[in-house]
Design brief:
It comes from Nocardioides bizhenqiangii. The protein is mainly alpha-helical. It is 70% helix and 0% strand.
Length: 432
């Protein structure tokens, strides 16, 4: 591995992270699309020789870097959501009805459909299940174009969040952790030790509960210290010390993993719990800004690496089955599962908005993490075809969803924007 090349790419990704959002503001082109394309072009040159891009050789590195990107994104998502969720208030749970439908109906349907598709294409049960579990969750890292912008703080009254963006954001925050039971199912099947009782009792219920409880406890403890400590030196909210967000996500994730829970759920629960304390305090916006910047930098770096890998052999084992799985998931399975999930729903969204929720199931960094993690736990699941398929699906999602996100969200994402102007002037674009 050439460390100088890593510094070079990291520096380039930092610069692009700063300038791309403003440069692409008025175009139907997302920063992830540009970064993957740039990485692909760089990969065609001799420059990336020695870069750690081969998942079969650098699986552990890829696992940990993508893991870090996801937990930072989950912290940002949890801090960005203004709608409360209180465990002892059933009325607050009802306001998350669209989210529960996507998690409890759409995601299992997606996993089942991709598993069946994989079996029909000749994969073994464990491999088909892993492919489905890795590709099922939407990605909190790459879905910023269709998510809420950030926490509303200050003395003004908090506006009711747009239901479309709220559903996509909250779904991405929760389904990363909820995909883990299915990843473990694939690992257990591959090892020949699958037991329904163990899988439901421990991997589906026990580890989920531990993750949520740890996240709530850490979030409350940190909020108590940050906002209400009797010691002025510990009331970091008064000083605006926004790096507390890093302490929160690392503490919640690490503690949950140590005791056996799902760390992704712990991070999201921690962020939501911390956000519920002093909800109008500007400190939440400061913490969200720090996590957002870190997420952007790390994400763009990973996308550059993905682009380089795509042109350096990651797609060598791509075949028609890979294309069928990737495009079938993005264009048919996920949208249809989402539409079915909203049957009988009283979410208040229009049919077009429900369709947008169903369609914008962005695949990304999380899928790469799950595949790296599972193949580390069960090496017999590792295959170049699986990496090619997941990489193709992520790239296809980046392109398809990246092109459509801006025009679709502009048209139906906000109340009163059913018909956008055909030729917006500079002022209207900036006010958007």
């Amino acid at each position: 591995m050439n460390a100088d090349l890593v510094y070079l790419v990291a520096g380039a990704s930092l610069f692009l992270a700063i300038v791309l959002p403003a440069l692409l503001d008025r175009w139907a082109i997302s920063a992830p699309m540009v970064l993957v394309a740039v990485g692909f072009a760089v990969g065609l040159t001799p420059l990336p020789d020695g870069m750690p891009i081969d998942p079969t050789i650098n699986r552990e590195l890829i696992e940990h870097v993508t893991e870090l990107a996801v937990i930072i994104a989950l912290m940002g998502v949890g801090l960005a959501l203004d709608r409360p969720l209180e465990l002892r208030r059933p009325s607050s749970w009802r306001t998350w009805g669209s989210t529960w439908r996507m998690l409890g109906i759409a995601m299992p349907l997606t996993i089942a459909a991709v598993t069946v598709l994989g079996l029909a294409m000749g994969l073994g049960l464990a491999a088909a299940l892993l492919l489905a579990a890795a590709l099922a969750p939407t990605d909190p890292v790459l879905a910023s174009d269709v998510q809420v912008a950030g926490p509303q703080t200050g003395d003004h009254e908090v506006d009711e969040p747009d239901e479309l963006r709220f559903t996509l954001t909250s779904e991405a925050g929760l389904n990363d952790g909820l995909a883990f039971p299915f990843v473990y199912a694939a690992i257990l099947v591959a090892a020949g030790g699958f037991s329904w009782l163990e899988w439901i009792g421990w991997y589906t219920v026990g580890k989920v509960a531990i993750g949520v409880v740890i996240g709530v406890v850490v979030g409350r403890a940190l909020a108590q210290v940050a906002f209400r400590s009797t010691s002025h030196s510990l009331r970091v909210a008064e000083r605006g010390e926004s790096l507390t967000s890093l302490a929160a996500l690392i503490s919640a994730y690490g503690l949950s993993e140590v005791v056996g829970g799902y760390g992704f759920l712990a991070v999201f629960a921690c962020a939501m719990t911390f956000r519920s304390a002093e909800r109008a305090h500007d400190y939440h916006a400061s913490m969200h800004e720090v996590t957002e910047r870190l997420e952007r930098l790390l994400t763009l770096f990973l996308l550059l690496m993905l682009g380089i890998a795509l042109s350096r052999g990651l797609l060598d084992d791509l075949d028609w089955r890979s294309v069928a799985v990737g495009l079938g998931l993005i264009l048919v399975i996920r949208p249809l599962s989402g539409v079915l999930a909203f049957i009988g729903s009283k979410s208040g969204m229009s049919h077009a908005q429900r369709g947008a929720v169903a369609f914008f199931g962005v695949r990304g960094i999380g899928s790469l993490y799950y595949l790296a993690y599972a193949t580390g736990e069960a090496p017999e699941l590792a295959s170049d075809w699986m990496w090619s398929t997941v990489a193709f699906t992520v790239t296809a999602s980046v392109i398809i969803h990246g092109v459509l996100a801006t025009p679709v969200m502009y048209r139906i994402g906000e109340p009163g924007t059913e018909t956008p102007p055909t030729s917006p002037d500079k002022e209207s674009v900036e006010d958007r």
